[in-house]
């Protein structure tokens, strides 16, 4: 199989973990995106769970994330570097919403912890992959 964005199909354990992380993050983004769409179309019977009943700040956030999260999922699933960038934008937006403006959006500590864990795992795997590449070149 051909490499995708420099990651071989059957590579080292770090490369395989890197691909697995991307796929798990993609599934997580897809679930979050669907949850935002559920909120937008009003399938859930809760307070402010329909677009026309949401305050403006929720309308902007929900529409933006409902579009960007599935887009990030596609990029992450295909192991493309742009998927990580779109995920990072979404994670930053949700961190700002749920940590910086918790009085408007509520608190979502589990979601923030998952975003942080994904970012940390990504950084650790990037360092491991860098070291592997350097060792192969030496």
What does this entry show, briefly?
The chain is mainly alpha-helical. The protein has five helices and no strands. It has one domain.
Question: Could you characterize the architecture of this molecule?
Answer:
The structure is a single chain. By secondary structure, the protein is mainly alpha-helical. The chain has helices at residues 13-41, 56-77, 81-100, 102-105, 109-137. Helix content is 75%, strand content 0%. The model has no long low-confidence stretch (mean pLDDT 90).
Biggest sheet architecture: none
Number of domains: 1
Distance between the termini: 26 Å
Number of strands: 0
The DSSP helix count reads 5
Structural class: mainly alpha
Rg, rounded, reads 17 Å
What is the typical, i.e. mean, pLDDT?
Answer: 90
What is the global morphology? Answer: elongated
Low-confidence stretches: none
Q: Percent helix among the residues?
A: over 70%
Secondary structure elements and pairings:
Layout: H1 13-41, H2 56-77, H3 81-100, H4 102-105, H5 109-137
Helix pairs in contact: 1-2, 1-5, 2-3, 3-5
List keywords for this structure.
elongated, 138 residues
């Amino acid at each position: 199989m051909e490499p995708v964005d420099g990651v071989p199909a059957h590579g080292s354990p770090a490369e395989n973990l890197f691909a697995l992380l991307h796929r798990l993050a993609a599934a997580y983004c897809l679930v979050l995106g669907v949850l935002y769409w559920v909120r937008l179309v009003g399938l859930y019977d809760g307070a402010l769970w329909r677009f026309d009943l949401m305050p403006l700040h929720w309308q902007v956030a929900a529409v933006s994330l409902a579009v960007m999260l599935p887009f990030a999922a596609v990029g992450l699933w295909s192991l493309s570097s742009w998927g990580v960038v779109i995920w990072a934008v979404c994670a930053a937006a949700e961190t700002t919403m749920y940590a910086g403006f918790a009085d408007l959006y509520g608190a979502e500590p589990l979601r923030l912890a998952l975003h942080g864990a994904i970012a940390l795992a990504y950084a650790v795997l990037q360092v491991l992959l860098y070291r592997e590449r350097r060792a192969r070149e030496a």
